[in-house]
Protein backbone atom coordinates (compact mmCIF):
# COMPACT_ATOMS: atom_id res chain seq x y z
CA UNK A 1 0.00 0.00 0.00
CA UNK A 2 1.29 3.37 -0.93
CA UNK A 3 2.34 5.39 2.05
CA UNK A 4 0.86 8.81 2.25
CA UNK A 5 3.58 11.36 1.66
CA UNK A 6 1.09 13.97 0.56
CA UNK A 7 0.20 15.35 3.93
CA UNK A 8 3.55 14.60 5.44
CA UNK A 9 5.23 17.89 6.04
CA UNK A 10 8.97 17.80 6.26
CA UNK A 11 10.76 19.44 9.12
CA UNK A 12 13.36 22.09 8.61
CA UNK A 13 16.19 21.50 11.02
CA UNK A 14 16.78 24.93 12.53
CA UNK A 15 13.32 26.34 13.10
CA UNK A 16 10.40 24.21 14.07
CA UNK A 17 8.92 25.28 10.74
CA UNK A 18 7.31 22.68 8.57
CA UNK A 19 7.56 22.66 4.83
CA UNK A 20 5.82 20.54 2.23
CA UNK A 21 7.70 18.33 -0.18
CA UNK A 22 6.11 20.35 -2.95
CA UNK A 23 7.66 23.56 -1.62
CA UNK A 24 11.04 21.91 -1.22
CA UNK A 25 10.92 20.89 -4.88
CA UNK A 26 9.96 24.41 -5.88
CA UNK A 27 12.85 25.85 -3.89
CA UNK A 28 15.23 23.38 -5.45
CA UNK A 29 14.06 24.25 -8.96
CA UNK A 30 14.59 27.94 -8.27
CA UNK A 31 18.02 27.24 -6.81
CA UNK A 32 18.86 25.26 -9.95
CA UNK A 33 17.91 28.13 -12.25
CA UNK A 34 19.74 30.70 -10.14
CA UNK A 35 22.87 28.58 -10.14
CA UNK A 36 22.68 28.06 -13.89
CA UNK A 37 22.64 31.74 -14.69
CA UNK A 38 24.68 33.34 -11.92
CA UNK A 39 28.33 33.83 -12.89
CA UNK A 40 29.48 33.21 -9.30
CA UNK A 41 29.01 30.18 -7.05
CA UNK A 42 25.91 30.67 -4.92
CA UNK A 43 25.38 29.21 -1.42
CA UNK A 44 24.46 25.55 -1.72
CA UNK A 45 20.87 24.83 -0.79
CA UNK A 46 22.04 21.86 1.24
CA UNK A 47 18.96 21.58 3.39
CA UNK A 48 16.57 21.54 0.42
CA UNK A 49 18.83 19.08 -1.34
CA UNK A 50 18.93 16.65 1.55
CA UNK A 51 15.20 16.87 2.16
CA UNK A 52 14.48 16.15 -1.49
CA UNK A 53 16.99 13.31 -1.70
CA UNK A 54 15.30 11.85 1.32
CA UNK A 55 11.92 12.16 -0.36
CA UNK A 56 13.25 10.53 -3.51
CA UNK A 57 14.70 7.60 -1.58
CA UNK A 58 11.48 7.26 0.40
CA UNK A 59 9.39 7.23 -2.76
CA UNK A 60 11.66 4.71 -4.47
CA UNK A 61 11.20 2.36 -1.55
CA UNK A 62 7.43 2.81 -1.68
CA UNK A 63 7.06 1.94 -5.32
CA UNK A 64 9.41 -1.04 -5.22
CA UNK A 65 6.47 -3.23 -4.27
CA UNK A 66 4.34 -2.04 -7.19
CA UNK A 67 4.05 -3.78 -10.52
CA UNK A 68 6.26 -1.94 -13.01
CA UNK A 69 3.33 -1.46 -15.35
CA UNK A 70 1.05 -0.07 -12.70
CA UNK A 71 0.16 3.50 -13.62
CA UNK A 72 1.17 4.65 -10.15
CA UNK A 73 4.62 3.15 -10.55
CA UNK A 74 5.04 4.73 -13.97
CA UNK A 75 3.87 8.18 -12.86
CA UNK A 76 6.15 8.15 -9.83
CA UNK A 77 9.14 6.88 -11.79
CA UNK A 78 8.66 9.58 -14.39
CA UNK A 79 8.54 12.24 -11.71
CA UNK A 80 11.55 10.83 -9.90
CA UNK A 81 13.55 10.97 -13.13
CA UNK A 82 12.61 14.63 -13.47
CA UNK A 83 13.68 15.38 -9.91
CA UNK A 84 16.93 13.45 -10.30
CA UNK A 85 17.68 15.48 -13.40
CA UNK A 86 17.23 18.78 -11.60
CA UNK A 87 19.43 17.67 -8.72
CA UNK A 88 22.14 16.28 -11.00
CA UNK A 89 22.11 19.37 -13.19
CA UNK A 90 22.30 21.64 -10.13
CA UNK A 91 25.27 19.85 -8.63
CA UNK A 92 27.05 19.57 -11.98
CA UNK A 93 26.66 23.28 -12.56
CA UNK A 94 28.25 23.93 -9.19
CA UNK A 95 31.11 21.54 -9.88
CA UNK A 96 31.81 23.32 -13.15
CA UNK A 97 32.15 26.63 -11.38
CA UNK A 98 34.25 25.09 -8.64
CA UNK A 99 36.56 23.62 -11.25
CA UNK A 100 36.82 26.88 -13.19
CA UNK A 101 37.27 29.31 -10.31
CA UNK A 102 38.87 26.95 -7.79
CA UNK A 103 41.50 29.19 -6.27
CA UNK A 104 39.20 32.20 -6.01
CA UNK A 105 36.37 30.20 -4.48
CA UNK A 106 38.68 28.60 -1.92
CA UNK A 107 40.08 32.00 -0.99
CA UNK A 108 36.70 33.65 -0.64
CA UNK A 109 35.35 30.69 1.29
CA UNK A 110 38.12 30.92 3.85
CA UNK A 111 37.24 34.49 4.66
CA UNK A 112 33.56 33.64 5.19
CA UNK A 113 31.91 32.87 8.51
CA UNK A 114 30.56 29.34 8.94
CA UNK A 115 26.92 30.35 8.33
CA UNK A 116 27.93 32.19 5.17
CA UNK A 117 29.87 29.39 3.56
CA UNK A 118 28.73 28.59 0.06
CA UNK A 119 30.21 25.14 -0.46
CA UNK A 120 29.17 22.01 1.33
CA UNK A 121 31.80 20.08 3.26
CA UNK A 122 32.05 17.58 0.42
CA UNK A 123 32.37 20.30 -2.20
CA UNK A 124 35.13 21.97 -0.20
CA UNK A 125 37.00 18.69 -0.03
CA UNK A 126 36.59 18.23 -3.77
CA UNK A 127 37.72 21.81 -4.46
CA UNK A 128 40.81 21.45 -2.30
CA UNK A 129 41.77 18.18 -3.92
CA UNK A 130 41.14 19.60 -7.37
CA UNK A 131 43.33 22.60 -6.69
CA UNK A 132 46.14 20.49 -5.28
CA UNK A 133 45.93 18.11 -8.20
CA UNK A 134 46.18 20.99 -10.67
CA UNK A 135 49.06 22.70 -8.92
CA UNK A 136 51.02 19.47 -8.62
CA UNK A 137 50.49 18.71 -12.24
CA UNK A 138 51.67 22.09 -13.50
CA UNK A 139 54.65 22.02 -11.20
CA UNK A 140 55.66 18.56 -12.35
CA UNK A 141 55.25 19.19 -16.04
CA UNK A 142 56.34 22.78 -16.47
CA UNK A 143 56.79 25.12 -13.58
CA UNK A 144 59.66 23.34 -11.91
CA UNK A 145 61.67 23.75 -15.11
CA UNK A 146 61.08 27.44 -15.31
CA UNK A 147 63.44 30.02 -13.86
CA UNK A 148 62.56 30.88 -10.27
CA UNK A 149 61.26 34.34 -11.01
CA UNK A 150 58.69 32.93 -13.38
CA UNK A 151 57.20 30.38 -11.01
CA UNK A 152 55.71 32.28 -8.16
CA UNK A 153 52.79 33.93 -9.81
CA UNK A 154 50.04 31.60 -8.79
CA UNK A 155 48.04 34.70 -8.04
CA UNK A 156 48.29 35.81 -11.64
CA UNK A 157 46.63 32.60 -12.65
CA UNK A 158 43.49 33.16 -10.63
CA UNK A 159 40.39 32.99 -12.80
CA UNK A 160 37.47 35.19 -11.87
CA UNK A 161 33.88 35.15 -13.08
CA UNK A 162 32.57 38.18 -14.93
CA UNK A 163 30.27 39.60 -12.30
CA UNK A 164 28.99 42.27 -14.65
CA UNK A 165 27.70 39.80 -17.20
CA UNK A 166 24.08 40.33 -18.08
CA UNK A 167 21.35 38.08 -16.73
CA UNK A 168 17.60 37.83 -17.13
CA UNK A 169 15.76 38.34 -13.86
CA UNK A 170 12.20 38.17 -12.67
CA UNK A 171 11.24 40.16 -9.59
CA UNK A 172 9.51 38.00 -6.99
CA UNK A 173 8.56 40.99 -4.90
CA UNK A 174 8.64 44.72 -5.47
CA UNK A 175 12.11 46.13 -4.83
CA UNK A 176 12.39 49.89 -4.86
CA UNK A 177 15.37 51.94 -6.03
CA UNK A 178 17.64 49.39 -7.63
CA UNK A 179 20.70 50.80 -9.34
CA UNK A 180 20.63 49.70 -12.94
CA UNK A 181 23.36 51.55 -14.76
CA UNK A 182 26.92 52.73 -14.54
CA UNK A 183 25.75 56.23 -13.83
CA UNK A 184 23.69 55.12 -10.82
CA UNK A 185 20.21 55.56 -12.26
CA UNK A 186 17.62 53.80 -10.16
CA UNK A 187 14.55 51.81 -11.07
CA UNK A 188 11.84 50.17 -8.99
CA UNK A 189 11.51 46.47 -9.77
CA UNK A 190 7.82 45.72 -9.62
CA UNK A 191 6.80 42.22 -8.51
CA UNK A 192 6.39 40.00 -11.55
CA UNK A 193 8.38 42.22 -13.90
CA UNK A 194 11.25 40.88 -15.97
CA UNK A 195 14.53 42.56 -16.83
CA UNK A 196 17.96 42.17 -18.30
CA UNK A 197 20.65 43.64 -16.09
CA UNK A 198 24.31 43.17 -15.09
CA UNK A 199 24.46 40.46 -12.44
CA UNK A 200 26.53 42.42 -9.97
CA UNK A 201 23.83 45.03 -9.56
CA UNK A 202 21.28 42.52 -8.30
CA UNK A 203 23.50 39.82 -6.79
CA UNK A 204 22.41 40.67 -3.27
CA UNK A 205 18.76 40.44 -4.34
CA UNK A 206 19.39 36.96 -5.71
CA UNK A 207 20.93 35.86 -2.43
CA UNK A 208 18.00 37.35 -0.54
CA UNK A 209 15.44 35.70 -2.78
CA UNK A 210 13.81 38.94 -3.95
CA UNK A 211 14.55 38.14 -7.58
CA UNK A 212 14.82 34.93 -9.57
CA UNK A 213 17.24 34.39 -12.46
CA UNK A 214 15.52 32.99 -15.54
CA UNK B 1 19.69 27.13 -21.79
CA UNK B 2 19.01 24.10 -23.97
CA UNK B 3 15.72 23.95 -25.90
CA UNK B 4 15.07 20.62 -24.21
CA UNK B 5 15.44 22.29 -20.82
CA UNK B 6 12.95 24.96 -21.81
CA UNK B 7 10.57 22.20 -22.79
CA UNK B 8 11.32 20.45 -19.50
CA UNK B 9 10.27 23.56 -17.59
CA UNK B 10 7.19 24.15 -19.74
CA UNK B 11 6.06 20.56 -19.19
CA UNK B 12 5.23 21.39 -15.62
CA UNK B 13 2.18 23.40 -16.73
CA UNK B 14 -1.14 21.99 -15.72
CA UNK B 15 -3.52 20.80 -18.43
CA UNK B 16 -6.95 19.22 -18.51
CA UNK B 17 -7.44 15.66 -19.72
CA UNK B 18 -10.41 13.33 -19.93
CA UNK B 19 -9.23 9.85 -19.00
CA UNK B 20 -10.83 6.66 -20.29
CA UNK B 21 -9.90 4.73 -17.18
CA UNK B 22 -10.44 4.88 -13.44
CA UNK B 23 -7.67 5.28 -10.95
CA UNK B 24 -7.19 6.49 -7.39
CA UNK B 25 -5.31 9.73 -6.66
CA UNK B 26 -1.54 9.56 -7.04
CA UNK B 27 0.46 11.56 -4.56
CA UNK B 28 3.34 12.88 -6.57
CA UNK B 29 5.97 14.93 -4.82
CA UNK B 30 5.00 17.94 -6.92
CA UNK B 31 1.39 17.57 -5.85
CA UNK B 32 -1.46 15.12 -5.95
CA UNK B 33 -3.11 14.15 -9.23
CA UNK B 34 -6.48 12.53 -9.66
CA UNK B 35 -8.68 10.73 -8.85
CA UNK B 36 -9.16 9.59 -12.43
CA UNK B 37 -12.74 8.80 -13.41
CA UNK B 38 -13.44 7.74 -16.96
CA UNK B 39 -15.20 10.54 -18.82
CA UNK B 40 -14.55 13.20 -16.19
CA UNK B 41 -11.98 15.96 -16.77
CA UNK B 42 -9.03 16.24 -14.41
CA UNK B 43 -5.97 18.50 -14.31
CA UNK B 44 -2.49 17.02 -14.41
CA UNK B 45 1.00 18.17 -15.36
CA UNK B 46 1.67 18.30 -19.09
CA UNK B 47 4.50 15.74 -18.96
CA UNK B 48 2.11 13.16 -17.54
CA UNK B 49 -0.71 14.17 -19.88
CA UNK B 50 1.48 13.65 -22.95
CA UNK B 51 2.41 10.18 -21.71
CA UNK B 52 -1.21 9.19 -21.12
CA UNK B 53 -2.29 10.62 -24.44
CA UNK B 54 0.39 8.69 -26.31
CA UNK B 55 -0.87 5.55 -24.62
CA UNK B 56 -4.36 6.51 -25.78
CA UNK B 57 -5.56 6.49 -22.22
CA UNK B 58 -7.09 9.96 -22.39
CA UNK B 59 -7.86 12.87 -24.60
CA UNK B 60 -6.48 16.35 -24.05
CA UNK B 61 -8.76 19.25 -23.16
CA UNK B 62 -7.44 22.27 -25.04
CA UNK B 63 -6.52 25.14 -22.69
CA UNK B 64 -9.08 27.96 -22.67
CA UNK B 65 -6.82 30.23 -24.66
CA UNK B 66 -6.32 27.67 -27.42
CA UNK B 67 -9.34 28.93 -29.31
CA UNK B 68 -9.52 30.73 -32.65
CA UNK B 69 -11.31 33.89 -31.48
CA UNK B 70 -9.19 34.37 -28.37
CA UNK B 71 -6.01 33.89 -30.36
CA UNK B 72 -7.13 36.24 -33.12
CA UNK B 73 -7.66 38.95 -30.51
CA UNK B 74 -4.23 38.35 -29.06
CA UNK B 75 -2.74 38.51 -32.52
CA UNK B 76 -4.42 41.85 -33.22
CA UNK B 77 -3.24 43.24 -29.90
CA UNK B 78 0.26 42.05 -30.61
CA UNK B 79 0.22 43.74 -34.00
CA UNK B 80 -1.18 46.96 -32.55
CA UNK B 81 1.05 47.34 -29.56
CA UNK B 82 4.64 48.47 -29.58
CA UNK B 83 5.22 46.37 -26.49
CA UNK B 84 4.77 42.66 -25.85
CA UNK B 85 1.30 41.60 -24.80
CA UNK B 86 0.88 39.36 -21.83
CA UNK B 87 0.39 35.87 -23.18
CA UNK B 88 -2.31 33.71 -21.59
CA UNK B 89 0.37 31.25 -20.65
CA UNK B 90 4.03 31.80 -19.83
CA UNK B 91 4.80 28.62 -21.75
CA UNK B 92 2.39 29.00 -24.64
CA UNK B 93 4.78 27.77 -27.32
CA UNK B 94 5.94 24.70 -25.40
CA UNK B 95 2.37 23.78 -24.53
CA UNK B 96 1.24 24.27 -28.11
CA UNK B 97 4.09 22.20 -29.52
CA UNK B 98 3.59 19.32 -27.11
CA UNK B 99 -0.19 19.25 -27.51
CA UNK B 100 -0.07 19.41 -31.31
CA UNK B 101 2.63 16.75 -31.26
CA UNK B 102 0.49 14.15 -29.54
CA UNK B 103 -3.13 15.30 -29.60
CA UNK B 104 -3.88 17.27 -32.74
CA UNK B 105 -7.18 15.40 -33.15
CA UNK B 106 -8.33 16.63 -29.74
CA UNK B 107 -8.10 20.27 -30.77
CA UNK B 108 -11.01 21.67 -32.78
CA UNK B 109 -9.89 23.77 -35.78
CA UNK B 110 -6.37 22.61 -35.03
CA UNK B 111 -4.78 23.78 -38.25
CA UNK B 112 -6.18 27.29 -37.92
CA UNK B 113 -5.01 27.49 -34.35
CA UNK B 114 -1.58 26.25 -35.25
CA UNK B 115 -1.32 28.98 -37.88
CA UNK B 116 -2.47 31.79 -35.61
CA UNK B 117 -0.06 30.76 -32.86
CA UNK B 118 2.75 30.70 -35.37
CA UNK B 119 1.73 34.15 -36.58
CA UNK B 120 1.73 35.51 -33.04
CA UNK B 121 5.13 34.00 -32.40
CA UNK B 122 6.49 35.49 -35.62
CA UNK B 123 5.17 38.96 -34.80
CA UNK B 124 6.76 38.79 -31.37
CA UNK B 125 10.06 37.51 -32.71
CA UNK B 126 10.19 40.25 -35.27
CA UNK B 127 9.41 42.88 -32.64
CA UNK B 128 12.11 41.39 -30.49
CA UNK B 129 14.70 41.56 -33.25
CA UNK B 130 13.92 45.20 -33.97
CA UNK B 131 13.98 46.10 -30.29
CA UNK B 132 17.23 44.28 -29.66
CA UNK B 133 18.78 46.03 -32.62
CA UNK B 134 17.68 49.46 -31.40
CA UNK B 135 18.64 48.61 -27.86
CA UNK B 136 22.17 47.61 -28.74
CA UNK B 137 22.65 50.61 -31.00
CA UNK B 138 21.41 52.89 -28.23
CA UNK B 139 24.13 51.42 -26.00
CA UNK B 140 21.71 50.52 -23.26
CA UNK B 141 22.77 48.13 -20.56
CA UNK B 142 19.45 47.66 -18.84
CA UNK B 143 15.99 46.90 -20.13
CA UNK B 144 12.60 45.80 -18.95
CA UNK B 145 11.39 42.57 -20.57
CA UNK B 146 7.88 42.21 -19.25
CA UNK B 147 5.68 39.61 -20.92
CA UNK B 148 8.49 37.94 -22.78
CA UNK B 149 8.30 34.17 -22.37
CA UNK B 150 11.25 31.90 -21.61
CA UNK B 151 11.38 30.50 -25.12
CA UNK B 152 11.56 33.98 -26.61
CA UNK B 153 14.25 35.05 -24.17
CA UNK B 154 16.14 31.93 -25.10
CA UNK B 155 16.09 32.98 -28.74
CA UNK B 156 18.06 36.11 -27.89
CA UNK B 157 19.88 34.64 -24.93
CA UNK B 158 23.23 34.00 -26.57
CA UNK B 159 23.32 37.28 -28.44
CA UNK B 160 21.80 39.89 -26.22
CA UNK B 161 23.52 39.35 -22.88
CA UNK B 162 26.80 38.82 -24.68
CA UNK B 163 26.44 41.99 -26.73
CA UNK B 164 25.49 43.93 -23.61
CA UNK B 165 28.55 42.62 -21.80
CA UNK B 166 30.71 44.01 -24.55
CA UNK B 167 28.94 47.35 -24.47
CA UNK B 168 29.41 47.59 -20.71
CA UNK B 169 33.05 46.86 -21.13
CA UNK B 170 33.47 49.56 -23.76
CA UNK B 171 31.57 52.02 -21.58
CA UNK B 172 33.80 51.34 -18.64
CA UNK B 173 36.88 51.81 -20.80
CA UNK B 174 35.45 55.00 -22.28
CA UNK B 175 34.66 56.25 -18.79
CA UNK B 176 38.17 55.53 -17.61
CA UNK B 177 39.70 57.11 -20.69
CA UNK B 178 37.65 60.23 -20.23
CA UNK B 179 38.76 60.50 -16.64
CA UNK B 180 42.37 60.02 -17.61
CA UNK B 181 42.14 62.63 -20.32
CA UNK B 182 40.51 65.26 -18.11
CA UNK B 183 43.07 64.68 -15.45
CA UNK B 184 45.69 65.43 -18.08
CA UNK B 185 43.81 68.60 -18.94
CA UNK B 186 42.80 67.38 -22.38
CA UNK B 187 39.64 68.27 -24.22
CA UNK B 188 37.01 65.57 -23.80
CA UNK B 189 34.05 67.26 -25.43
CA UNK B 190 34.11 65.16 -28.54
CA UNK B 191 33.98 61.86 -26.67
CA UNK B 192 30.60 60.22 -26.77
CA UNK B 193 28.45 61.14 -23.82
CA UNK B 194 25.49 58.88 -24.49
CA UNK B 195 26.63 56.20 -22.06
CA UNK B 196 23.36 54.60 -21.44
CA UNK B 197 19.69 54.73 -21.93
CA UNK B 198 16.97 52.93 -20.14
CA UNK B 199 14.66 51.25 -22.56
CA UNK B 200 11.69 49.03 -22.56
CA UNK B 201 11.99 46.20 -25.02
CA UNK C 1 61.08 33.93 -33.74
CA UNK C 2 60.52 33.54 -30.02
CA UNK C 3 57.26 31.91 -29.11
CA UNK C 4 56.73 30.12 -32.41
CA UNK C 5 57.02 26.63 -31.01
CA UNK C 6 54.76 27.45 -28.09
CA UNK C 7 52.12 28.87 -30.38
CA UNK C 8 52.37 25.86 -32.61
CA UNK C 9 51.61 23.59 -29.65
CA UNK C 10 48.38 25.43 -29.03
CA UNK C 11 47.42 25.59 -32.69
CA UNK C 12 48.01 21.88 -33.25
CA UNK C 13 45.82 20.99 -30.32
CA UNK C 14 43.02 23.19 -31.55
CA UNK C 15 43.23 21.86 -35.09
CA UNK C 16 43.26 18.18 -34.33
CA UNK C 17 40.14 16.14 -34.86
CA UNK C 18 41.28 13.51 -32.36
CA UNK C 19 39.78 13.62 -28.89
CA UNK C 20 43.27 13.72 -27.46
CA UNK C 21 46.44 13.54 -29.53
CA UNK C 22 49.57 12.09 -27.91
CA UNK C 23 51.37 14.39 -25.52
CA UNK C 24 53.97 16.43 -27.38
CA UNK C 25 56.98 15.76 -25.15
CA UNK C 26 59.45 17.27 -27.55
CA UNK C 27 57.40 20.37 -28.14
CA UNK C 28 57.00 21.04 -24.45
CA UNK C 29 60.68 20.49 -23.79
CA UNK C 30 61.63 22.90 -26.57
CA UNK C 31 59.45 25.63 -25.13
CA UNK C 32 60.90 25.13 -21.67
CA UNK C 33 64.42 25.31 -23.04
CA UNK C 34 63.62 28.45 -24.95
CA UNK C 35 62.25 30.06 -21.81
CA UNK C 36 65.39 29.12 -19.94
CA UNK C 37 67.65 30.43 -22.69
CA UNK C 38 65.88 33.78 -22.99
CA UNK C 39 65.87 34.14 -19.23
CA UNK C 40 69.59 33.53 -18.93
CA UNK C 41 70.34 36.09 -21.64
CA UNK C 42 68.19 38.59 -19.86
CA UNK C 43 69.87 37.94 -16.54
CA UNK C 44 73.25 38.78 -17.99
CA UNK C 45 72.00 41.95 -19.64
CA UNK C 46 70.00 42.98 -16.58
CA UNK C 47 73.21 42.85 -14.58
CA UNK C 48 74.92 45.00 -17.21
CA UNK C 49 72.02 47.44 -17.15
CA UNK C 50 72.06 48.01 -13.42
CA UNK C 51 75.80 48.54 -13.62
CA UNK C 52 75.85 51.01 -16.47
CA UNK C 53 72.37 52.52 -16.25
CA UNK C 54 72.35 52.33 -20.05
CA UNK C 55 68.70 52.89 -20.87
CA UNK C 56 69.04 51.66 -24.42
CA UNK C 57 69.08 48.14 -22.98
CA UNK C 58 65.62 48.53 -21.56
CA UNK C 59 63.53 47.72 -24.68
CA UNK C 60 65.51 44.54 -25.25
CA UNK C 61 65.02 43.43 -21.66
CA UNK C 62 61.29 44.14 -21.91
CA UNK C 63 61.08 42.30 -25.17
CA UNK C 64 62.71 39.20 -23.76
CA UNK C 65 60.50 39.36 -20.71
CA UNK C 66 57.44 39.55 -22.95
CA UNK C 67 58.71 36.58 -24.95
CA UNK C 68 59.05 34.53 -21.78
CA UNK C 69 55.55 35.48 -20.71
CA UNK C 70 54.17 34.52 -24.08
CA UNK C 71 55.90 31.16 -24.09
CA UNK C 72 54.67 30.49 -20.60
CA UNK C 73 51.14 31.48 -21.48
CA UNK C 74 50.99 29.27 -24.58
CA UNK C 75 52.51 26.36 -22.74
CA UNK C 76 50.10 26.60 -19.84
CA UNK C 77 47.21 26.97 -22.29
CA UNK C 78 48.30 23.79 -24.06
CA UNK C 79 48.57 21.84 -20.84
CA UNK C 80 45.34 23.22 -19.42
CA UNK C 81 43.37 22.50 -22.58
CA UNK C 82 44.58 18.90 -22.56
CA UNK C 83 43.47 18.53 -18.97
CA UNK C 84 40.02 19.85 -19.90
CA UNK C 85 39.75 17.15 -22.52
CA UNK C 86 40.98 14.51 -20.11
CA UNK C 87 38.36 15.67 -17.64
CA UNK C 88 35.69 15.30 -20.34
CA UNK C 89 36.95 11.77 -20.97
CA UNK C 90 36.32 10.91 -17.32
CA UNK C 91 32.78 12.24 -17.57
CA UNK C 92 32.11 10.32 -20.75
CA UNK C 93 33.84 7.00 -20.16
CA UNK C 94 33.98 6.74 -16.40
CA UNK C 95 37.06 5.71 -14.45
CA UNK C 96 38.26 3.18 -17.07
CA UNK C 97 39.68 4.78 -20.17
CA UNK C 98 39.74 2.95 -23.50
CA UNK C 99 43.29 1.89 -24.37
CA UNK C 100 43.66 3.90 -27.53
CA UNK C 101 42.93 7.09 -25.64
CA UNK C 102 45.00 6.08 -22.63
CA UNK C 103 48.08 5.88 -24.84
CA UNK C 104 47.84 9.59 -25.53
CA UNK C 105 48.23 10.49 -21.87
CA UNK C 106 51.68 11.34 -20.61
CA UNK C 107 52.56 9.95 -17.17
CA UNK C 108 51.68 13.09 -15.17
CA UNK C 109 48.37 13.27 -17.06
CA UNK C 110 47.59 9.70 -16.10
CA UNK C 111 48.26 10.59 -12.50
CA UNK C 112 46.11 13.69 -12.76
CA UNK C 113 43.32 11.62 -14.30
CA UNK C 114 43.46 9.03 -11.56
CA UNK C 115 43.43 11.67 -8.82
CA UNK C 116 40.55 13.51 -10.44
CA UNK C 117 38.63 10.32 -11.03
CA UNK C 118 38.98 9.27 -7.42
CA UNK C 119 38.11 12.72 -6.10
CA UNK C 120 35.01 12.89 -8.29
CA UNK C 121 33.87 9.42 -7.31
CA UNK C 122 34.30 10.19 -3.63
CA UNK C 123 32.34 13.40 -4.02
CA UNK C 124 29.49 11.74 -5.90
CA UNK C 125 29.25 8.97 -3.33
CA UNK C 126 29.08 11.45 -0.48
CA UNK C 127 26.09 13.41 -1.74
CA UNK C 128 22.98 13.35 0.41
CA UNK C 129 24.57 11.91 3.51
CA UNK C 130 26.18 8.98 1.81
CA UNK C 131 23.29 8.19 -0.47
CA UNK C 132 25.30 9.09 -3.55
CA UNK C 133 24.32 10.19 -7.07
CA UNK C 134 25.99 9.45 -10.37
CA UNK C 135 26.33 12.94 -11.78
CA UNK C 136 27.75 11.59 -15.04
CA UNK C 137 24.32 10.26 -15.94
CA UNK C 138 21.04 12.15 -16.33
CA UNK C 139 22.72 14.59 -18.69
CA UNK C 140 19.54 15.52 -20.54
CA UNK C 141 16.06 16.14 -19.20
CA UNK C 142 14.16 12.83 -19.12
CA UNK C 143 11.63 12.30 -21.84
CA UNK C 144 9.70 9.23 -21.00
CA UNK C 145 9.86 5.68 -19.82
CA UNK C 146 8.13 4.93 -23.08
CA UNK C 147 9.29 5.38 -26.65
CA UNK C 148 7.49 6.02 -29.89
CA UNK C 149 8.41 3.32 -32.44
CA UNK C 150 7.56 2.35 -35.99
CA UNK C 151 7.46 -1.25 -37.04
CA UNK C 152 9.73 -1.95 -40.00
CA UNK C 153 8.44 -5.39 -40.95
CA UNK C 154 5.54 -7.74 -40.35
CA UNK C 155 6.62 -9.17 -37.02
CA UNK C 156 3.29 -10.41 -35.77
CA UNK C 157 2.03 -10.59 -32.19
CA UNK C 158 4.16 -9.25 -29.35
CA UNK C 159 3.22 -9.77 -25.72
CA UNK C 160 4.09 -7.09 -23.18
CA UNK C 161 4.98 -7.86 -19.59
CA UNK C 162 1.50 -6.94 -18.40
CA UNK C 163 -0.08 -9.45 -20.76
CA UNK C 164 -1.25 -6.94 -23.34
CA UNK C 165 -0.70 -8.24 -26.88
CA UNK C 166 0.23 -5.87 -29.67
CA UNK C 167 0.15 -6.60 -33.36
CA UNK C 168 3.38 -5.43 -34.94
CA UNK C 169 2.55 -4.90 -38.59
CA UNK C 170 4.83 -3.21 -41.05
CA UNK C 171 4.59 0.59 -40.72
CA UNK C 172 2.37 0.49 -37.65
CA UNK C 173 3.35 2.95 -34.92
CA UNK C 174 3.30 2.24 -31.20
CA UNK C 175 4.14 3.85 -27.87
CA UNK C 176 5.77 1.18 -25.78
CA UNK C 177 7.86 0.75 -22.60
CA UNK C 178 11.45 1.44 -23.53
CA UNK C 179 12.96 -1.44 -21.59
CA UNK C 180 10.70 -4.03 -23.18
CA UNK C 181 11.33 -3.07 -26.78
CA UNK C 182 15.01 -2.20 -26.70
CA UNK C 183 15.94 -5.61 -28.05
CA UNK C 184 13.49 -5.32 -30.94
CA UNK C 185 14.93 -1.91 -31.76
CA UNK C 186 18.43 -3.34 -31.71
CA UNK C 187 17.36 -6.16 -34.02
CA UNK C 188 16.00 -3.61 -36.46
CA UNK C 189 12.41 -4.78 -36.22
CA UNK C 190 11.30 -1.57 -34.58
CA UNK C 191 12.55 1.89 -35.34
CA UNK C 192 12.70 4.53 -32.64
CA UNK C 193 10.97 7.73 -33.72
CA UNK C 194 12.14 10.77 -31.81
Automatic annotation (TrEMBL), chain A:
UniProt similarity note: Belongs to the GINS4/SLD5 family.
Protein task: The GINS complex plays an essential role in the initiation of DNA replication.
Occurrences of domain DNA replication complex GINS protein SLD5 C-terminal (ranges): 161-214
UniProt xrefs under SUPFAM superfamilies: GINS helical bundle-like, PriA/YqbF domain
Localization per record: Chromosome; Nucleus
Organism: Hermetia illucens (Black soldier fly)
A biological process term (GO) from this entry: DNA-templated DNA replication
InterPro entries the record matches: GINS_A, GINS_bundle-like_dom_sf, GINS_Sld5, SLD5_C, Sld5_GINS_A
Name listed for the protein in its UniProt record: DNA replication complex GINS protein SLD5
TrEMBL record, chain B:
PANTHER family: DNA REPLICATION COMPLEX GINS PROTEIN PSF2 (PTHR12772)
Domain of life: Eukaryota
Localization: Nucleus
Domain GINS subunit as annotated: residue spans: 65-169
Broad class of the protein's primary localization: nucleus
tRNA-binding among keywords: no
Pfam family, one: Sld5
A biological process term (GO) from this entry: DNA replication
Family: Belongs to the GINS2/PSF2 family.
SUPFAM superfamilies: GINS helical bundle-like, PriA/YqbF domain
Subunit (UniProt): Component of the GINS complex.
Name of this protein: DNA replication complex GINS protein PSF2
TrEMBL record, chain C:
Every DNA replication complex GINS protein PSF1 C-terminal domain range: 143-193
Subcellular localization: Chromosome; Nucleus
Main location: nucleus
Domain of life, source organism: Eukaryota
GINS subunit domain residues: 34-127
One Pfam family it belongs to: PSF1_C
A GO cellular component annotation in the UniProt record: GINS complex
InterPro entries: GINS_A, GINS_bundle-like_dom_sf, GINS_Psf1, PSF1_C
Keyword Nucleus: yes
One BP annotation, GO: DNA strand elongation involved in mitotic DNA replication
Keywords: Chromosome, DNA replication, Nucleus
Role summary: Required for correct functioning of the GINS complex, a complex that plays an essential role in the initiation of DNA replication, and progression of DNA replication forks. GINS complex is a core component of CDC45-MCM-GINS (CMG) helicase, the molecular machine that unwinds template DNA during replication, and around which the replisome is built.
Subunit-structure text: Component of the GINS complex.
Name this protein carries in UniProt: DNA replication complex GINS protein PSF1
Organism field: Hermetia illucens
